[in-house]
Amino acid sequence: AQSVTQLGSHVSVSEGALVLLRCNYSSSVPPYLFWYVQYPNQGLQLLLKYTSAATLVKGINGFEAEFKKSETSFHLTKPSAHMSDAAEYFCAVSVGNLIFGKGTKLSVKP
Amino acid sequence: DVKVTQSSRYLVKRTGEKVFLECVQDMDHENMFWYRQDPGLGLRLIYFSYDVKMKEKGDIPEGYSVSREKKERFSLILESASTNQTSMYLCASSTDRHFMTSRSSYEQYFGPGTRLTVT
């Protein structure tokens, strides 16, 4: 069965530091993978998605993610954190429907 | 600009009340979804619909029902609200006619959520 595991329910970084949010997936077929972001008191919006084209996917707001089949990972990165990046981030795998990870809350310290 | 709207941002109901949560999308999407979001549990799918009057159970349908009489509107119904249904409810929509038979590359568009408190 397909599933997604996000390592770390809370991640805290300093402004300007590298952001790394981890996501590992389990899938019996080549997966389609998504990262969504949820800002406080808002719904989710798509950051980026992998649909088996380029393994390095660029998204909005300077985020990118790399699909690594050998590691079954799809980690989200941003070179330099900004205060406005504070939000909850969800990784998801598509099996038709989306299966979401439990989320990682990112805090950014000034 | 695509839009999914939910009828209420905050709702407080009493145990045993019948509760309706409404969702409307303006993108002519075939598919609509209801999720609940709880801290530490992520998003869990309650019900979804792939066409007018069609519905399918998700992972946690117990205690809920849905209605889709028009393509743009998808309602979630709590027949008799209970305190364990206190949660954030998110509606979403997507366009992909084949998503039920294969993985979908189409994104889901989410509404702002309804925070329901049952006392």
What would the keywords be for this entry?
heterodimer, A: 110 residues, mainly beta, 5-stranded antiparallel sheet, B: 119 residues, 7-stranded mixed sheet, 4-stranded antiparallel sheet, 0% helix
Any overview of this molecule?
The complex is a heterodimer of chains A (110) and B (119). Chain A is built from no helices and eleven strands. Chain A has 110 residues and is mainly beta. In chain A, strands 2, 4, 5, 9, 10 and 11 form a six-stranded mixed β-sheet that branches. A five-stranded antiparallel β-sheet of chain A has the order 1-3-8-7-6, with no helix packed on it. Chain B has no helices and eleven strands. In chain B, β4 and β5 form a beta hairpin. Chain B is globular, with a radius of gyration of 14 Å. The model of chain B has no long low-confidence stretch (mean pLDDT 93). At the A-B interface, β4, β5, β9 and β10 of A face β5 of B.
Largest two-chain interface: A-B, 24 and 26 residues
Percent in helix of chain B: under 10%
Order of helices and strands of chain B: EEEEEEEEEEE
Strand content of the residues of chain A, in percent?
over 45%
Q: Label the overall shape of chain A.
A: globular
Number of helical stretches of at least 4 residues of chain A = 0
Total DSSP helices of chain B = 0
Structural class of chain A: mainly beta
Contiguous runs where pLDDT drops below 50 for at least 5 residues of chain B: none
The overall pLDDT average of chain B reads 93
Q: List low-pLDDT spans of chain A.
A: none
Could you tell me the radius of gyration of chain B in angstroms? 14 Å
| Biggest pleated-sheet summary of chain B | 7 strands, mixed
**Helical amount among residues of chain A, as a percent range?**
under 10%
Beginning-to-end CA distance, first to last residue of chain B: 37 Å
How many strand elements of chain B? 11
What is the strand tally of chain A? 11
Silhouette of chain B: globular
